[in-house]
Amino acid sequence: MLIEASEKCYNYFRGDNNFKGLSGLVHIIREYFPAFTHRNYKLFWTGQVISLIGTWMQNAALNWIVYSMTRDGFLSGLMTAVQFTPLFAFSLFAGLIIERFPKRKILIFTQSMLLVFALIFYILLYFNRLTYPLILIILFFIGTIQALDNPTRQSFVVELVEGKKHLLNAIALNSAAFNAARLVGPAVAGKMMADFGAKWCFLFNAISFLAVLMGLLMMKMKDIPSRHQIKDPLSDIKEGLKYIKKTPKLLYTIISLVIIPTFCMNFNVLIPIYTKDYLMMQEKAYGMLLSSLGLGALIGAIFVAVRASKEKALYFQLMGSFGLSAFLIILGLLKNYNLSILNLVVLGLFMISFNTTSNSILQFNSPDEMRGRIMSVYSLVFGGLTPIGSLYAGTLAKYAGANNAFIISGIIGFIGFFVLFKRRRELV
């Protein structure tokens, strides 16, 4: 299917057959990337691509700064844990806010606040006033904003594509944007840090948020919440959790998301340590390793966008969880920089196959009136448990080495795979 799509693109640019002119390109987009036929989605996606490059530059720079400042894997893990603790504390309540207020307006607020925090980082670095305690304080506030921002963006997609018909395609294209940024951002950050200093990564990130805000302001849509009042917050949260419990497709997807992202996707914590202490390399190598993971994830996202469907989602989910676990173990056994790059490309492909289809399975099986609450649970387990995963990875890397942390994480990942595989007949 990917080869076929490539051939059609080639024919379009060559002007052959039925692909001459603009109509040929429109045909390719409609057939393989139908989410792009929705104007609001195009605006959102374009802004996200630009903003996410800045976000990945900031993440890469911050992880490198902290490990260079502390030389302690535990403190690197603690930093990530502090950022994601608010997701654990507030995600379920965020679901109620998402259903109560228009999602577009929520995103305008959250993206504006993230812009402000990026500027604060830049100013502190510019005046050489950034310390580890200040980093933790700022990241806690960023995490609080993200506790609302993340589930809002996830549940907003169905409105951008006006229903579920193009939902999986849109989710996959979102992953493509995220991972194109993961590919570009760390590589640019590595060179920028080496040549000019880390502070410019934060300034670029602040500016990049303007692209998202412009897209949100240009959208033409009715800002209507899915419900108009919150009667009893705890009762409403329990209602959402009960619905997940009685729906196997939601329940076992959530269980696998508790296990696999928490213990198998701690790359921001482990790759700086793996680069410095195991491969004995510096900033540019670190940026390339992170970008390699992004390249694989980008390939995986495009592959899922072109090939996956609602009916094939479970197959891609199983394939992703198995491959991710296996190649984590292989990465821990490698000590060659070039082979590590290739392995991370493959790891990224399987990682995004699991992530994208897990997200889409939850959304396909979510009633509109509960989407905010269900996606807030997704954010809770996918991001809110990151503090546990970060502390686990940082502590394990400190005492056993980053390479052994990858191996142990891969073994744990197979537990998540077997949860899905054992229940596969209930999930079809």
From TrEMBL:
<dbReference type="GO" id="GO:0005886">
    <property type="term" value="C:plasma membrane"/>
</dbReference>
<feature type="transmembrane region" description="Helical">
    <location>
        <begin position="313"/>
        <end position="334"/>
    </location>
</feature>
<keyword id="KW-0472">Membrane</keyword>
<protein>
    <submittedName>
        <fullName>Putative bacilysin exporter BacE</fullName>
    </submittedName>
</protein>
<keyword id="KW-0812">Transmembrane</keyword>
<feature type="transmembrane region" description="Helical">
    <location>
        <begin position="399"/>
        <end position="421"/>
    </location>
</feature>
<dbReference type="Pfam" id="PF05977">
    <property type="entry name" value="MFS_3"/>
</dbReference>
<feature type="transmembrane region" description="Helical">
    <location>
        <begin position="43"/>
        <end position="67"/>
    </location>
</feature>
<dbReference type="InterPro" id="IPR036259">
    <property type="entry name" value="MFS_trans_sf"/>
</dbReference>
<feature type="transmembrane region" description="Helical">
    <location>
        <begin position="250"/>
        <end position="274"/>
    </location>
</feature>
<feature type="transmembrane region" description="Helical">
    <location>
        <begin position="197"/>
        <end position="219"/>
    </location>
</feature>
<keyword id="KW-1133">Transmembrane helix</keyword>
<feature type="transmembrane region" description="Helical">
    <location>
        <begin position="374"/>
        <end position="393"/>
    </location>
</feature>
<feature type="transmembrane region" description="Helical">
    <location>
        <begin position="286"/>
        <end position="306"/>
    </location>
</feature>
<keyword id="KW-1003">Cell membrane</keyword>
<feature type="transmembrane region" description="Helical">
    <location>
        <begin position="130"/>
        <end position="148"/>
    </location>
</feature>
<dbReference type="InterPro" id="IPR010290">
    <property type="entry name" value="TM_effector"/>
</dbReference>
<feature type="transmembrane region" description="Helical">
    <location>
        <begin position="340"/>
        <end position="362"/>
    </location>
</feature>
<dbReference type="GO" id="GO:0022857">
    <property type="term" value="F:transmembrane transporter activity"/>
</dbReference>
<feature type="transmembrane region" description="Helical">
    <location>
        <begin position="106"/>
        <end position="124"/>
    </location>
</feature>
<feature type="domain" description="Major facilitator superfamily (MFS) profile">
    <location>
        <begin position="40"/>
        <end position="428"/>
    </location>
</feature>
<feature type="transmembrane region" description="Helical">
    <location>
        <begin position="73"/>
        <end position="94"/>
    </location>
</feature>
<keyword id="KW-0813">Transport</keyword>
<dbReference type="InterPro" id="IPR020846">
    <property type="entry name" value="MFS_dom"/>
</dbReference>
